[in-house]
Design goal:
Blueprint lengths: L7 E5 L9 E3 L3 E5 L2 H4 L2 H16 L2 H21 L9 H35 L2 H15 L7 H5 L6 H11 L4 H10 L11
Parallel strand pairs: 1-3
Antiparallel strand pairs: 2-3
Helix pairs in contact: 2-4, 2-5, 3-4, 4-7, 5-7
Length: 194
């Protein structure tokens, strides 16, 4: 797929927590051993394509460079803080801790959207992508949506945002998306937004 050469494909035990997931690294992917229990073959193909998209788009490398850049900038700002503004130092320290995390998580969520898009382009089946994400969400008992603050510090977009983005890109009407989610046992009305 896409001419990607992987060094390894790992199969990871779901463990005591029974976490069902998949991971894309710089030159490998990992899948938990219980994915087939919750996903159909075509849904599993979407998940693998999503992880391969992370490899193709070099998200692991970009994220590592982003971490270095963001925390280097934060450190420089903290160490170059002028002496006369010392009373503001606690506020700046708070911003220097929270700001980089919010920026990194924002970029991480963008990576997820782009990997979803690449995987849907490859599989040509946005409805299967929505089903795969819904089934993964159900298997891990995650909420479909978060409040704004929780979402600010989440590495992945909420299910609501991801399926809306996929439906929008795949030209799936909102009423059809709502029907798919109802059938999957997810009761919320998606409102498209990224």
């Amino acid at each position: 797929m896409w001419g990607i050469l992987l060094d390894r494909v790992y199969v990871v035990p779901a463990g005591k927590g029974h976490l069902t997931n998949a991971y894309g690294m710089s030159n490998a992917i990992a899948l938990t051993d219980n994915l087939g229990k919750f996903l159909t073959k075509t849904q599993l193909e979407f998940v693998v394509a999503h992880e391969l998209a992370h490899v193709k788009l070099k998200h692991a490398r970009k994220y590592f460079l982003l971490v270095l850049a963001v925390f280097s900038i934060a450190a420089l700002l903290l160490f170059s803080f002028p002496q006369r503004a010392l009373p503001l130092r606690p506020l700046l320290q708070l911003v220097a801790m929270i700001g980089p995390l919010a920026a990194l998580y924002y970029c991480s969520r963008r990576f997820e959207y782009s990997a979803d898009g690449e995987a849907v382009d490859f599989t040509g089946d946005p409805e299967t992508a929505i089903w795969a994400l819904a089934n993964l969400r159900q298997s891990n008992e995650l909420p479909a949506a978060y409040d704004r603050l929780t979402e600010l510090f989440a590495t992945h977009p909420t299910l609501a945002h991801r399926v809306c983005a996929i439906a929008n890109d795949g030209r799936i009407p909102a009423d059809q998306l709502t029907d798919i989610l109802k059938e999957a046992g997810i009761l919320f009305s998606p409102a498209p937004s990224r």
